[in-house]
Amino acid sequence: MTGKHVEDQLVAFLPNLRRFAVSLCRSRDHADDLVQAACERALASALTFQEGTRFDAWMFRILRNLWIDDGRRRRTAGPQEDIDAHHELAARGSGEAEAETRLTLKSVAAAIDDLSEEQREVLLLVCVEELAYKEAAEVLDVPIGTVMSRLARARRNLAEATGITATPERSAVAKGTG
Amino acid sequence: MMSGEQFSDDMLMRFADGELADEEMAAIEQAMETDDDLVARVALFIETRAQAKASLAPLLAEPVPEKLVAAVEGMIAASRAERETPSSVVPFAAPKPAARASARHWTLPLAASIAAVLGGLAGYWVAGDGGSGPAGLAVAGIVNPSVGDALRNVPAGGEVALAGGGRFRAIASFRDEAENFCREFELDSAGSTTVVAVACDAAGEWRVSFAVSAPGDAGGYAPASSTEALDAYLTAIEAGEPLSSDAEAEALEGLRKAR
User: Fold this and answer.
1) pLDDT tens string A133-152
2) In chain B, positions 222-251, which contact chain A (CB-CB < 8 Å)?
3) Would you call A23 an interface residue with chain B, using a CB distance cutoff of 8 Å?
4) Could A14 and B14 be called an inter-chain contact, meaning their C-beta atoms sit closer than 8 Å?
5) Which residues of chain B have a CB within 8 Å of the CB of A163?
6) RNA polymerase sigma factor 70 region 4 type domain location, by residue (chain A) (predicted)?
7) Which of A58, A70, B211, B214 has the smallest number of Cβ neighbours within 10 A?
8) The domain A94-178: what is its CATH number?
9) Strands across the sheet with B181-188, in order?
10) Spatial CB neighbours of B78, under 8 Å, sequence gap ≥ 6
């Protein structure tokens, strides 16, 4: 086993890694530092990567652990940084997208931004990065049941905040006669 | 239309996320054909997933800052270079992942300090009797037979005075992952420096693979900080347990005979 696997995949994976980082810290500058630190850590421990397992899950885990360590240090160092760059998840300059669509999507991004960190990260891993529950559980170091309960709560909050009701079109009559 | 109630929300979420077994997926699909409430409950999960993905897609499309890409590419290049030219600092087989995860984190900053120390160490041996021979102790090209002899003769726990000043103390013997015979030892210079080092037998030569110099008091013995660095190093190379005195004596005898 060599570190080649990691070296070969890292650059192509940067956009995803950065997206995850931005949604964790909600600050692009912070996220870039975090991504760089995660890459450094990944290369240094490239030999721990098992071929045949998901590279993305492995990288997310490294990055998240760094973020948590970082948080511990921040807490012990006392309040010093304002990372509450609110609604950072909303895309910058989303171009020619239809105004209405953009408006809707922005509000979803804002709602995701407003989720607790626990709920946000699980939503991100499963719904956005498409990890299986089991993989997300490994990244987050929690049981699958915890992944599921956080994920369900995250979705309910998201639906509530954005007005996603997903009620199928149907009439009272149809319902009544079933 | 109550049939959908047999399915919990958890199950429907797993359905939306493709986490159910085929039969369960099929059962829900079938129930959805005739159950609007069930459709609505499933739709909530499908919809939130789709919306979350769509709303964060632009973030994925954002160009990664050039500075970040350059930094990562630089690290990758360095990592490749290190892999392709085996380092003399860690010349052993790759440790198993578990040990690596913690040890490796350590050894990176450590490597730099070792390199610096090796420079100082070379000076130490130059200041010794400066003799050279094909089977001496090679550190960055510097050879001192008296240390090599001590490594071949002094059992763990033993101590000898070196020709040219200073003392040699054998701490332990072990085998690394490649089964090379290695010795951990300390050298006190005539002044006040203690060097903590590991040397391994490489085809009749002693190769020093680790060395940290620490200011010691007159009585020798390295302070804790240098032994912490040593521990990290030993973990990184997956050093075996220290050999028993019998096993060590046997190995040392073998070395002497081989000469």
Assistant:
1) 999 999 999 999 999 999 99
2) none
3) yes
4) no
5) none
6) 107-158
7) A70
8) 1.10.10.10
9) B142-143, B137-139, B205-215, B193-202, B181-188, B167-175, B159-161
10) none
Give the start-to-end residue ranges of the domains of chain A: 1-74, 94-178
How much is the pTM? 0.54
Q: Please indicate whether, in this complex, the C-beta atoms of A162 and B51 are within 8 angstroms of each other.
A: yes
B68/A2 touch (CB, cutoff 8 Å), yes or no: no
**Integer Cα distance of B135 and A106 in angstroms:** 72
Q: Is A39 on the interface with B (CB under 8 A)?
A: yes
pLDDT of residue A146: 97
* ipTM summary value: 0.78
| Model confidence at B5: pLDDT above 80 | no
**Phi, psi (deg, nearest 5) at residue A82:** -100, 100
CATH classification code of A1-74 = 1.10.1740.10
Tally of residues, chain B:
259
Of the ranges A153-162, B103-112, B133-142, which is most confident?
A153-162
**Spatial separation of the C-alpha atoms in residues A65 and A173, rounded to whole Å:** 54
Instruction: Give the single-character DSSP code of B203.
Output: T
Low-confidence ranges of chain A (pLDDT < 50): 1, 78-86, 93-95, 97-98, 168-178
Task: Give the pLDDT band of residue B25 (cuts 50, 70, 90).
Answer: very high
